[in-house]
Amino acid sequence: RASYLGLRGHPHAGPLLSELVGAVGIEGDSGERCHTARRGERCHSDVIWAMKKWKDHPEWYINITERSTFEDYQCFFHQQIENDGSRRCPRPCDYHPQASQDDVTGHRSIARKGN
């Protein structure tokens, strides 16, 4: 992402700067390619492993819950930058994050007895 800030080729425009740029939400053009990971790909293996193991270390998986989908995990890994500057996983195609009821209404739904 450093190239979007005009820093391509700068000796200090490495993975750390790319991670920082990603963290503050500066994105490239909206034409970024998507690919939903498939069996046999490293990303797919990482996602499946994390889906099985996330409860062991939930603090490692920001915004991942028991309701998270395969695409939620892949998007989580897409946010991670490898040492060589590449993303750990591609952006999943047709991804729409799951919103909780709290997110949609701004408050918790209250179930009433007898209704």
Describe the overall structure.
- With 115 residues, this protein is mostly helical.
- 30% of the residues lie in helices and 0% in strands.
- The protein has helices at 15-23, 42-53, 70-78, 101-105.
- The model is unreliable at 1-13, 16-30 and 100-115 (pLDDT under 50).
Helix content: 25-40%
What is the H/E string? HHHH
Main sheet characteristics: none
DSSP strand (E) fraction? under 5%
Q: Helical element count?
A: 4
pLDDT averaged residue by residue: 73
Residue runs with pLDDT of under 50 for 5 or more positions: 1-13, 16-30, 100-115
Structural class: mainly alpha
Q: Got a strand count? A: 0
The radius of gyration over CA amounts to 18 Å
Kindly report how far apart the N and C termini lie: 52 Å
Shape: globular
What's the arrangement of secondary structure elements?
Layout: H1 15-23, H2 42-53, H3 70-78, H4 101-105
Can I get a quick summary?
The protein is mainly alpha-helical and 115 residues long. The protein is built from 4 helices and no strands.
Key phrases:
0% strand, globular, 4 helices, 30% helix, disordered C terminus
